[in-house]
Amino acid sequence: MLALSLGVAWLLLAPLSLWLIVRGTSGERAGAIVTLVLLEGGTIVMSSALHPAAITPSAAAHALPPAPPTCDNSVPMPRSAEMGEDVVLTWTATPHECGTADVVVHAKGRKLLFWLHESPAERTRTSTLTLSDGRAFILPVQVHDGVAALTIPLHGKAGYVPIDGRTGRRIPKPVTPVSNATM
């Protein structure tokens, strides 16, 4: 109710005060200025009453240094690619290999361009990739005997040549076949 009264006071007294400042005598001008100052003061008090000051955090709530990463945030270079119903990309594993990798697959003619980036993400999002767009997927990384492998589901997509998207070079076939059973 107080806010409504203040609004009505502004609507009635502000135009009258401005008219008195322009046309009134010196006493009327002083009264008009005092009225406008009181209206503004009432607005400031009303605003602070409606929106109390934010609570400042205590001294105990200080910022902690960030936790060390659980794995190396890296950009692996694919060493081999086994093409089949699924694509299995392999690279040399690091001592702190991440459990997931972001993968972008893009079809360009008969070439499949792959971009890899390892990150300590805890989520996985596996699905069949559509080759009409270059979407990013987060897939699990398996590590066995110093070799990291990533399986990308490309059901029914045969005849593509795997290419490293960063370098533009062809990713060779593995010397020994890599399968999901060994990972």
Tell me what you see in this structure.
This protein has helices spanning 2-23, 26-50; strands spanning 80-82, 86-92, 100-108, 111-119, 136-144, 147-153, 161-164. It has 183 residues and is an alpha+beta fold. The protein has 2 domains: 2-50; 80-164, no CATH class. Strands 1-2-6-5-3-4-7 form a 7-stranded mixed β-sheet, with no helix packed on it. The longest helix has 25 residues, at 26-50. The N and C termini lie far apart (72 Å).
Shape: rod-shaped
Helices and strands, in N-to-C order? Answer: HHEEEEEEE
Number of domains: 2
* Structural class assignment: alpha+beta
Strand content: 25-35%
| Main sheet summary | 7 strands, mixed
Distance from first to last alpha carbon: 72 Å
Poorly predicted regions are 126-131
| Widest sheet, order of strands | 1-2-6-5-3-4-7
Overall mean confidence score, pLDDT: 79
**Secondary structure tally: strands:** 7
* Helix amount: 25-40%
Number of helices, where a helix is a run of at least 4 consecutive DSSP H or I residues = 2
* Rg on CA atoms, Å: 34 Å
Descriptors for this entry?
2 helices; alpha+beta; seven-stranded mixed beta sheet; 26% strand; 183 residues; 26% helix
List the helices and strands and how they pair.
Blueprint (H helix, E strand, L loop, with lengths): L1 H22 L2 H25 L29 E3 L3 E7 L7 E9 L2 E9 L16 E9 L2 E7 L7 E4 L19
Helix pairs in contact: 1-2
